[in-house]
Amino acid sequence: MDAFAYARPATLSEAIGLLGSSWSEAQVLAGGTDLISLMKEHVDAPARLVNIKGISELRRIREESGAYRIGSLVTFEELLGHAAIRNRLPALAEAAAGVTSPQIRNMGTVGGDLLQRPRCWYYRAGYGLLARDEKGQPLVPNGENRYHAIFATEGPAYFVSPSSLAPALIALDAKLTLHGHGGSREIAAAGLFAIPKSQGDREHTIQPNEILTEIAIPASAREWRSATYEVRQKEALDWPLATASVALKMDGSRISAARVVMGHVAPTPWRSAAAERALEGKPLNEETAAAAADAAVADAKPLSHNAYKVQLARVSVKRALLAIHSGSPS
Amino acid sequence: MADYKWPPADKRALIGKRISRLDGPWKSSGRVKYTYDINRPGMLFGRMITSRYAHAKVTHVDTSEAEKMPGVKAVYTFPTSSEVHWEGQEIVALAAETENQARDAARKVHITYEPLPYLVADAEPAKAGAQFTKEQSARTTGDVAAGFQQAEVTSEGRYGVPVITHCCLEAHGQVTEWKGDSLTVWCSTQYVSGQGAEYSTGLGIPANKVEAICPVMGGGFGSKFSADAWGVACAQLAKKAGRPVKMMLERDHELMVAGARPSMYADVKVGAKKDGTLVAWDSQSWGTGGPDAQGGGPALPYIFRIPNVRRKHTAVLTNIGPERAWRAPNHPQMCLITMSALDDLAAKLGMDPFDFFMKNIEITGARSASYVEEMNIAAGLMDWKKKWHPRGDKASGPIKTGVGLSIHTWAGAANNSNCAATIHPDGSAEVSMGTQDLGVGTRTVVGIVAAETFGLPLEAVTVNIGDSKYPPAGASGGSSTIGGVSTATRCAATDALNKLFAQVAPSLGATPDQLEAVGGQVRVTANPSKGIPWKQACAKLGATAVTATHGTDRTITSAGVGGVQMADVSVDTETGVVRVNKMVAVQDCGLVMDLKTAESQVYGALIMGVTYSLFEEKIMDQQTGRCLNPNMEFYKLAGIGDVGELVVHMMTGKGYDERGPIGLGEPPVISPGAALSNAVANAIGARVPELPLTPNRVLAALGKGGMA
Predict the structure, then answer these.
(1) Are B147 and B310 spatial neighbours (Cβ–Cβ below 8 Å)?
(2) In the CATH hierarchy, which top-level class contains the domain A224-326?
(3) DSSP state for residue B188 in the 8-state scheme
């Protein structure tokens, strides 16, 4: 780890003032479950760390102005401890519960989950986000890509978005608030993520001088039925192999609107319009779920060693839908 | 000649009882010092700079900038550093005032490489090419062609196990400190008494100038016998700096270089008569054992002495990392290959593998009668006959269940150990030996044997181990420790006791050979009421303690153990995820010294077995030659929720006790891979040919004719 300056501001504006115009100048420290590892491995080396854990206003969950408002410093365990989220937003609660290791659930924050960096082993070994060797050749397509993307595999990014909560938040139509020098802006959850196109690009649209402060889920989300399903090999500390979060609005026995978002399958959370179309207007049953699952992965283009993930993504979508189905008061 | 025989069951106060380990409270309270916890006055921190290449000439090493870095006190270049054969191989080491200074300075060492061809794949010999292969052994017994002509049913398959690492929870490493020309080494080692010779070779100093100290350790599994290049480097740094140095391996380095278990793959054809009688075996096997192809070909088939056998083995020379012995070297690999092939043959025969194994149990040789007993006990504990079904669970839904079994063997003969037993005039008693406790309960067992012999409670005996100043003991490898330490302790304690009896006998009006020490009394065997308390007896020694030293006694220990394991799994045929429901292990090891630590050994082996069966794999990148998962995140290990219900049954009593103590550390880790692989095949109706049994592989097997 390189030496760095450390600041622990007490207010948001003070914190923003400590950020810079580039990632190498300053970065935000929250739970620390990811950034510290990156710094130890010299994958990242910000000159200053701005620890925002002292900003208590970011640690609250409120129901206000027609939305569930979750501060970015809320931990997974705090999220799981909130009755309304547990009962009304099952897709989010299930995604949070899926995060392995009590240590990470206790320390890790909602904001950190959204902003953690990819787990791609080439990236973590110092080959950059686009995982290229000294000659600029991409390592993933001909390398060990068992855990890599099955969508958007035309490149140049092959890693998968590691966020557990993002697919659920997108399915629940969440909005994110970003605070910067000039005030705040609100974006759709999906808008936080972008596929990097060149070396130096990031996979997040947040700027180096902004802080993610709040995640707002519209109160109307409770009228939707939602679920998350994760395929994971281990119960103990591990990443899911594929996940799906789905939210359905029912009109009687028919689906009037659907959102289907897969995780760990592409450089961003991966929403499937085809799966949503396959659901809308249909009754929710095994057949519809299977058809939507097939539609969700129809465009998948796996790499040399991860065709199995297409099956896992399909099953994730199907089982998330069936979880809603079996929970339905039919 | 003294009588060293083990006491009969009705006379055992401690041996074979369920006794908690002596060091449990020290460990759980954090009081005991592991090597990493040792901090000496003025101690420096060592750091290694290692190869980024799988194979390269090191053309230039420039340490000048590093030497000027703050806090740097010594720099050492490894003598073997002109050519490196794997990523992580040591090139330079340095020592600095703080860990951070050492890390920062390490980044200022500049090394120039000339990359050389490498192979980091578990490739078949044909794909690896002549440069990277070495035919190792070919052997034929009987007449293989005639054997297969006799065979009415044959089965062919490919089976394999990848390279895995030892992943010791406590990394390799040491603290070294010089006093004049004498060296003290606190090290995590499986061979305390041997470290003198190790450092002597590396440093050119007399072995008796080295004291090695290792009171407790966090696992070795066969990877911690040597001082290692880093041990010698640490001592050299300490010498140069004139200060103690601590240098422990980082987790990534530990996974890259501190032990690669060789892979093993085989194409097998095996045949039997319709009634299940095995008649012929033919296998071509290959495996990687690092760049030098040490070891030798596997003895396939494993355990079953099939009358007609042809086997050929080719070593694939790789740059994956140096091979080290891994808990029961070669056996888990040979077991997986053999028991999978036999299980597939049983499926083709339409036989329950339990019946098939029993049909052929005679050709397992000397342990066949024990296997029969163990098979029946295991079947009872697993409810095998109720759970087993022909291949492919017919239950509706994606979750399929299945059961599988395997048997294994291991020698476990005693090492050469020496014990000094002392009885003091104040009634205290101690035993000393330069053995080590790898975390398995050796310290406790030494105490149990001494206390049993003296007729005292366990707490009354002080056990001194883990220091080379004590009488030399053998390396803890090959499950040889128990036979060595328990017999040496038994003999030394008996001899010391006889010396005490000689002093006490006149006062009891008896001869020394008429006395016994039981229940804290020294008394006349034929007239138990005629005795005196232990302390009073010891007071008769006057001012002088009695001591006796004795080595391993092979007349009260033996070799050769067996075990049977059964696994019950659920497989999600839509995701390929395997869950362990239950594992049953039935194991013999002669006379059990401590039932609790013996069972713990088997529990640990099952957990390690589940881990290598489902998760472990050293993943190498062919393009860069580097290891992609040198961390606890992607070098996957089972957690408590992944291991299922574990049932352990130790064989005791007639047929076992009279064999004396025999090694147990390795045998129970041999079968889990085969038992789990067979259980998955039983569940899904298809063989997953290679470990680990990942979703990827399970789904591939299902695609090839499973019942998705």
Answers:
(1) no
(2) alpha beta
(3) -
In this structure, what DSSP letter does residue B288 have? Answer: E
Domain A5-53, what fold?
3.30.43
Question: Is A58-115+163-220 the same fold as A5-53?
Answer: no
Whether the model clears a pTM of 0.80, i.e. scores above it, the answer is yes
Using CB atoms, which residue from A1, A125, A231 is nearest to B575? A231
> Distance (Å, rounded) from C-alpha B214 to C-alpha B187?
6
Backbone angles phi, psi at B270, to 5 degrees: -140, 140
Cβ-based contacts of B700 with chain A (< 8 Å)? 308
| Best of B103, B575, B699 to mutate (most A CBs within 10 Å, chain A) | B575
Q: Which fold has domain A58-115+163-220?
A: 3.30.465
Residue A131 to residues A117, A127, A139, A301, B381, Cα–Cα distance (Å): 13, 5, 6, 19, 51
Report which of A312, A301, A245 is spatially closest to residue A276, judged by C-alpha positions. Answer: A245
- Its ipTM equals 0.96
Q: What are B368's two structure tokens?
A: 């066949």
The full set of domain ranges for chain A reads 5-53, 58-115+163-220, 224-326
Which residues have CB under 8 Å from B512's CB, separation 6+? B498, B501, B502, B504, B505
For residue range A230-272, list pLDDT tens digits in order. 999 999 999 999 999 999 999 999 999 999 999 999 999 999 9
pLDDT in tens, B213-254: 999 999 999 999 999 999 999 999 999 999 999 999 999 999
The greatest distance separating any two alpha carbons of chain A, rounded to the nearest whole angstrom, comes to: 60
User: What whole-number distance in Å separates Cα of residue B429 and Cα of residue B537?
Assistant: 13
Give the position of tokens 């939707």: A224
Smallest CA–CA distance, residue A238 to chain B, in Å, is 7
Q: Are A269 and A188 in contact (CB under 8 A)?
A: no
Per the CB < 8 Å rule, is A139 touching B614?
no
- The C-alpha of B630 sits at a distance from chain A's nearest C-alpha, in angstroms, of 10
The answer to whether B677 and B688 are in contact (CB under 8 A) is yes
